[in-house]
Design a protein that fits this description.
The chain is mostly helical. It is built from 5 helices and no strands. Helix 2 packs antiparallel against helix 3 and helix 2 crosses helix 4. The longest helix is centred in the middle third of the chain and has 28 residues.
């Protein structure tokens, strides 16, 4: 997933939690949904970054000189400038892109 194309803000935004929790009716459930999605996004970003930086890995035990690769620095800067995973997850939640379910509530509806 290309996280640069998301329209999530890159800085912190104050949000009305009552408005955010209108779908679930519970602020804590909404925060749990957003946090779980943020963890998923964080893992995806970390894996992408690790794959890209693995190409530049040096397996020599040479301590004489640390070689800095310009491409490696640019990749790191790209990932540093991305919005934080919590901001991306919150934006996805607002846009309705997150699928979630609560098995306890589904069980209550069936009874």
């Amino acid at each position: 997933m290309d996280y640069k194309k998301t329209n999530a803000p890159s800085n912190t935004v104050t949000r009305d939690m009552m408005e955010l929790s209108a779908d679930t009716g519970n602020i804590y459930e909404t925060v749990a949904i957003i946090s779980k999605r943020a963890n998923q996004i964080s893992v995806e970003i970390k894996n992408d970054l690790s794959k890209k930086l693995a190409e530049f890995a040096s397996y020599n035990d040479n301590l004489e000189e640390v070689f800095e690769n310009r491409e490696q620095i640019e990749i790191s800067r790209y990932y540093e400038k991305l919005p934080k995973p919590t901001l991306i997850a919150t934006q996805e939640y607002i846009e309705g892109k997150i699928y979630y379910r609560n098995p306890a509530k589904e069980k209550e509806r069936l009874q």
